[in-house]
Amino acid sequence: MGLTSKSMGMHALDNPFTIVKSQPDDIIIALAGNPNVGKSTVFNSLTGLNQHTGNWAGKTVTNAHGVFKKNSRNYILVDLPGAYSIFPHSAEEEVARDFICFGNPDAILIVCDATCLERNLNLVFQIIEVTPCVMLCINFMDEAKKKQIDINLPLLEQLLKIPVVSSSARNRSGLTDLTNQLVNFSASPRASYENPHILYPEPIETAIKIISSGLEHSFLSNINKRWIALKLLDYDDSLWNGITRHLHLNPLDDVSLLAACNEARKHIEQAGYTKESLRDELIRSIVKKSEQVYQQVVTQNTSSSCQRQKSLDKLLTNRVSGIPIMLSLLCLVFYLTITGANYPSKLLSSLLFGLESHLSKWFRYAGITEWIRGPLIDGAYRVLAWVVSVMLPPMAIFFPLFTLLEDFGYLPRVAFNLDHIFKKSCTCGKQCLSMWIVAICYTVSLTSLLINL
């Protein structure tokens, strides 16, 4: 998937889920999950469509989709952008939320990472509150086994009240079972599933019931009425903008519904909740439920490596030590990149510019005119030699170092540390990683400019 004006332009997200069916009975399955859970790997394995499987959210900016056939029927798999929540904080999360709400998929397959299931369950509970047509795929079971993590899948299925299947998509393990269960699940009628929901504090539950009474004729038949009431209570403007944009209606035009919303919000305010504290309470309830389920279904051998990992987490994400460590590592990477590049740069420079004189002699010996030799040797070749000798060594040092930090799991911790700062600019912490790359590119460019001067 290349970067085109269609995929990256201003209107890239205007209509992100126009899925064309080749047959009326085609089944549309949305593929959702946190970033870095192997979602795109599952997508590629099932559909055979080669899509870039990067390590960070936002690689699938628009909704990629592919088709696989089973029992003479087409199953359209839509790879949604990676999202941590459907309380959207980014364009990618909003696209994922909107497709789940307005794309009318026949089923939603949520992919989770077996090694960090507790964090992934937050998204699972949010989605199953929206629609009951959810199936869960626990990926990276091979990695979980290495870390001595045992997941009780039957109990998890019982607690979530949705089908659960395990896989190791990179090794293609469990994909046949996943495909069969997904086909069987997506063919079942919606009414056969039960919506489990999170129990919120009593004032919030009362407010939800008040709004639900005004939703007797819901404008979104495929979405749980309770969840719609919750979003009305939560002042989720992005959702209502989505309803207006995709369904061309305003739910608050209903006078009785508007009155119910006002009554519910008044009840919430009397209970001491503000707009911000209400959102915090909703998230706290989801996290608490995820923790409870995780503790019931997951057992882990607390080996020394696990304890070491937890100690590193505390150190690297600590409010006091996290930022200084990040700045120190950034300076170290810059120092190694710039200083370390001097030696290979000198070597390449002497080699390439030494070759230039030999090429000039060969051109003259061959009788090639000066107006041809000049542009080719003094122009194109000399510029290329400068670029390669100055730019290549820093890049060859920086990107392996950057990859090592990513493989060791440090870069997600950096994104976590800076997330609250970047949110003040209406973005998220992972944008700092792009800034790192831009900074090193500017540094290398400045270095090359100084050398040329």
Automatic annotation (TrEMBL):
Instruction: Please provide one cellular component term from the Gene Ontology annotations of this protein.
Output: plasma membrane
Q: Keyword annotations for this protein? A: Membrane, Transmembrane, Transmembrane helix
Q: What Pfam family does this protein match (any one)?
A: FeoB_Cyto
Task: Enumerate the Gene3D superfamilies for this protein.
Answer: 1.10.287.1770, P-loop containing nucleotide triphosphate hydrolases
* The protein's name: Ferrous iron transport protein B
The FeoB-type G domain sits at 26-188
Report the transmembrane regions from the record.
Answer: 320-338, 383-405, 433-451
Read off the InterPro entries from this record: FeoB_Cyto (IPR041069), FeoB_GTPase (IPR050860), G_FEOB_dom (IPR030389), P-loop_NTPase (IPR027417)
Q: Tell me a Gene Ontology molecular-function term this record carries.
A: GTP binding
